[in-house]
Amino acid sequence: MAVKELSGDAWKPAQMCILGALVLWPDELAGKIFHGAMPSYFGEPSLKHFFEAAHSLWIEGKPIDPVTILHATGLDGHEETLAACMEMVPPHMDVDEYLHILRDEARLYQIRSAAGALSWAKSMEDALDAYEKMGQLLRDTDTIEDVSWEEMVGSYLDRMNDPAPPNYLTWGIPQLDETLCVSPGDFCVLAADSSAGKTALALQFAFHMAQHGKRTLFFSLETPREKLEDRLMAEKQVAAIPMLHSKKKALSSDDYLRAGDTGMKANKVPLRVIRRAETLPQIQNRIIMHNADVVFIDYLQIIRHKASSRFETVTEISMELHRMANRLGVTIVALSQVTPPESGEITIQDLRESGQIKNDAEIILLMMKDKTFPGARKLKIGKDKDGATNKSLLLSFDPQHMTFSYAKRKEPAQMPGQGAPLFDLDDDEGGDNPFESLPL
Predict the structure, then answer these.
(1) Which of 61, 102, 108, 384 could make an SS bond with 14 (beta carbons 3.0 to 4.6 A apart)?
(2) 342-371 pLDDT, tens digit each
(3) Alpha-carbon gap, residue 362 to 187, rounded angstroms
(4) DSSP 3-state assignment of 17?
(5) What is the pLDDT of residues 196-235, one digit of tens each?
């Protein structure tokens, strides 16, 4: 039978029908109902007590019926309430649909309550707590999944037969896109020593992802806004305005044309740069507020968090970012500093201040200056839970346009300025690109 018509507010009728069905058909429905509902879904105190009592009886293996429930709750005088629940149940009730109504109505009530608490907040802390609760309710992050192996196999085959391509993030460097399969909920780390260019590369990644429709947030915890603007406008994929022109405030007529064209298209690029959000709750609140798909954090070690030591601070930050990505269903890319070894290339063991980072991250990209070709950068996959590790790409860097590109080594004899850096992140002068495409 279809769902019985529920006129007006459907929440209380749904509560009564679910409870009535539980009492009428406990053997058939108890498992499904206790899996699909929880005490917080019941707003009527007496109905909530009945539900909790029935759940306790079920766990203890005792029968569920009006007498045992009333005895367990001790709610004298509520016999008529329980009887009314049983009478309200329609024949051949669609329990799944009623559970869906119950969850939705309960969440709606809780969202309204959180909104009320937000409007009456007496402090910023109270307001942030209410806002965070409302965002979590909107994302329904507390829903528990419980599926059988048979259902998993069926789901797998459905996905494999779906003609739609996989929804993995692209990074704007095709050779990297072919290697990494990054999904919503993944926690990634881009690690490098200071001045290696990790912020510039992260900005390049972030703009590319936003340009391809991903709602992207870039949390900058140390770089001034003006520098971020200059760097983004310098990128070839953005406006290609040379850094020196922006620094000197000496834009050419072509620069102004490109800047204007970029401005006209800006509303189609869902990228937001967020500064002064320095704590984990502040970061999470902004992620929820903007319903983000991808989040960059520059950088992990300077997020403010209280703990007894630096090791515990960074450990807890890493663990919470991993949980946050999974809980909110967003991809988080956290930049991280490293402590370079005295000799050899950096590895995931060199992530600064806590080994927990290498445990939490699904993907770790290690960026370092290339020793063979000064000015170039090597980008190595230090960890990939679902793929090959230690693959590396050589990236050339154009400092005037703050742009990294996939590169190929040429013979040293063909390279200008033997022994001198070809590229430097802090220089204003660029040079000819001594690189071409190189297969992985």
Answers:
(1) 102
(2) 777 888 888 877 778 888 888 889 988 887
(3) 6
(4) helix
(5) 888 999 999 999 999 998 999 999 888 888 888 889 888 8
Q: In terms of domains, do 293 and 351 share one?
A: yes
Distance, in Å, from the CA atom of 13 to the CA atom of 84, rounded to the nearest integer, reads 10
**pLDDT confidence of residue 297:** 92
- Poorest-pLDDT segment among 10-24, 192-206, 272-286, 339-353: 339-353
- Residue pair 37/51 in contact (Cβ under 8 Å)? The answer is yes
Domain of residue 339, CATH code: 3.40.50.300
132 and 185: one domain? no
| Helix, strand, coil percent values for the chain (each to nearest 5) | 45, 15, 40
Q: Average pLDDT for residues 335-345, to the nearest whole number?
A: 82
Q: Which residues contact 38 (CB under 8 A, 6 or more apart)?
A: none
Residues 246 and 317 in one domain: yes
Q: Are residues 99 and 238 in the same domain?
A: no
pLDDT at 382: 87
Domain span at 274: 174-414
Q: Helices 26-36 and 11-24: crossing angle, nearest 10°?
A: 140
Please, which residues bridge with residue 335 across strands? Answer: 190
Tell whether 101 and 200 lie within a shared domain: no
Q: Contact 114/134 with Cβ under 8 angstroms?
A: yes
CATH code of 34's domain: 1.10.860.10
Q: Where is average pLDDT lowest: 147-156, 233-242, 251-260?
A: 147-156
- Alpha carbons 298 and 282: distance in angstroms, whole number: 14
Amino acid at 343: S
121 and 231 belong to one structural domain: no
The band of 133, judged by pLDDT with boundaries at 50, 70 and 90, is low
pLDDT value of residue 391: 81
Question: For residue 424, is it within any domain?
Answer: no
Q: How many domains does the chain have?
A: 2
Same domain, 275 and 404: yes
The whole-angstrom separation of Cα 208 and Cα 224 is: 21
Residue in 423, 364, 356 with CA at minimum distance from that of residue 394? 423
Q: Would you give the end-to-end CA distance of the chain in angstroms?
A: 59
CA angle (265, 271, 276) in 5-degree steps: 135
Q: What is the pTM for the complete model shown?
A: 0.65
Q: Going by DSSP bridges, is the β-strand pair 294-298/331-337 parallel, antiparallel, or unpaired?
A: parallel
Other Cβ atoms less than 10 A from the Cβ of 419: the count is 7
